[in-house]
Write a structure and sequence with these properties.
Shape: extended
Strand order of the largest sheet: 1-6
CATH topology of one domain: Nucleoside Triphosphate Pyrophosphohydrolase
Largest sheet: 2 strands, antiparallel
Number of helices: 2
Helix content: 10-25%
CATH architecture of one domain: Alpha-Beta Complex
Strand content: 5-15%
Number of strands: 6
Distance between the termini: 49 Å
Length: about 110
Amino acid sequence: MTVRQTPSLRRARCAGCVYRDPARRYADAMKQRHRSIVDVHLIIRREGRIVMLRRANTGYGDGRLHLPSGHLERNESVVDGVIREAKEEIGVKVEPSGSLLLASRLGDVAS
C-alpha cells in the first residue's frame, strides 16, 4: 500500500494580512457570528401621509426614499430607540401610541 501526503492546506497570505494567528482569526469570526444588529424603522402617519426621507451621504441607497430609521444603541429598548431616532432623523418628539409592530429577519435576503 502506498501512502501519499496531501499538500498543505495553508493559504498564501497578503502582506497586509492582520490574521497571522489562526486562533485570532477564529476568535474574531466567532465575535462576528454572535453579533446582532437591530434596526428600527418609523412609520409616522399624519393627515393620511407617511413621512419619508431621501437618503444622502450614506453609501447605501443614496437618493432613494426611505423611512426614518437607525440602529439601536447597546442596551436600548425598541421604544427608546424609536423615540431617539425620530428626534435624530426628523427632529420631532414622538410618544409611543401603543401601536408597535415588531418584525425580525436573520441572515441574508435571497437575491
